[in-house]
Amino acid sequence: MMKRKLAAGNWKMNGTTPSLAELQALVSVHKTPSVDILICPPATLIAQAAGISADSTIMIGAQDCHAAASGAHTGDISAPMLADAGAGAVILGHSERRENHNETSDLVAKKALAAHAASLIALVCLGETLAQREGAQTLDVIADQLAGSLPDGTTGANTVIAYEPIWAIGTGLTPSLEQIGEVHAFIRSRLDDRFGAGAAQDFRLLYGGSVKPENAAEIFATSNVDGALVGGASLKADDFSPIINALES
Ligand SMILES: O=C[C@H](O)COP(=O)(O)O
């Protein structure tokens, strides 16, 4: 399978209609990108964002979905609804949801299954806390989250993995390139163990956590890094655009 690199932006709980000007700017600048670009605005903006990007190669994604397709779940949004609104992907198991909404890996796997059933790419996030990193538990935590968060039927075509050390998110701190490379190589080998030798090469493995225009190039040069999941620096086209450029070069 031809694997394109992926620059993904997660706007988190930021943005109202005027913020779509940033998406419009990306659409105008990145007309024929050599990498995939994904923007995940808040759910309220997905339909409008999908309209803006309709004639571009930029994909619009969501930040969460419910595990069920429909039903009595007040306030929740299902994967088929997101697809209907124009999303092509959904972030699942972000550490902010695991922490703020007590999401378990088991639930994330159910949501990923729902995403796959709705033909959405599941962008599944994994990452250790600072205490776990300092306690030399990082690889054990990643192994558990990876094993628990991916349902059967997961492939490199329907799923993207993002490694996001929790202590690096929004802090300006980043792991060393060696640490990023170690975790990504570990994820790749676990994917082969689970889905069969060679299967792991089809997966895009993103790094996330304080990716900026200034550090993007060196992170992208690290082995087994196929792109980034960017939070704060995805909110402004002037910040996200150079990150896309760094991934393309
Ligand atoms: O989903 C994105 C990550 O949480 C990274 O956020 P950040 O780039 O603001 O550190």
Automatic annotation (TrEMBL):
Q: Where in the cell is it found?
A: Cytoplasm
Which cellular components does GO assign to this protein?
cytosol
Q: Name one Pfam family in it.
A: TIM
Pathway(s): Carbohydrate metabolism; erythritol degradation; Carbohydrate biosynthesis; gluconeogenesis; Carbohydrate degradation; glycolysis; D-glyceraldehyde 3-phosphate from glycerone phosphate: step 1/1
Task: Give a GO biological-process term.
Answer: glycerol catabolic process
Q: Name the EC number(s).
A: 5.3.1.1
**CDD domains from the xrefs?**
TIM
Query: Matching InterPro entries, A to Z?
Result: Aldolase_TIM (IPR013785), TIM_sf (IPR035990), TrioseP_Isoase_bac/euk (IPR022896), Triosephosphate_isomerase (IPR000652), Triosephosphate_isomerase_AS (IPR020861)
Q: PROSITE patterns from the entry?
A: TIM_1, TIM_2
UniProt: substrate binding residues: 10-12, 170, 210, 231-232
Q: Which GO terms describe its molecular function?
A: triose-phosphate isomerase activity
Q: Does the keyword Cytoplasm apply?
A: yes
Q: What is its main location?
A: cytoplasm
Question: Active-site positions, per UniProt?
Answer: 94, 164
Key words, A-Z:
Cytoplasm, Gluconeogenesis, Glycolysis, Isomerase
Q: What catalytic activity does the UniProt entry give for this protein?
A: L-erythrulose 1-phosphate = D-erythrulose 4-phosphate; D-glyceraldehyde 3-phosphate = dihydroxyacetone phosphate
Please give the NCBIfam families that the UniProt record associates with this protein: tim
Task: Provide the function of this protein.
Answer: Involved in the gluconeogenesis. Catalyzes stereospecifically the conversion of dihydroxyacetone phosphate (DHAP) to D-glyceraldehyde-3-phosphate (G3P).
Q: Which family does it belong to?
A: Belongs to the triosephosphate isomerase family.
* Subunit composition and interactions: Homodimer.
Q: What's the protein called, per UniProt?
A: Triosephosphate isomerase
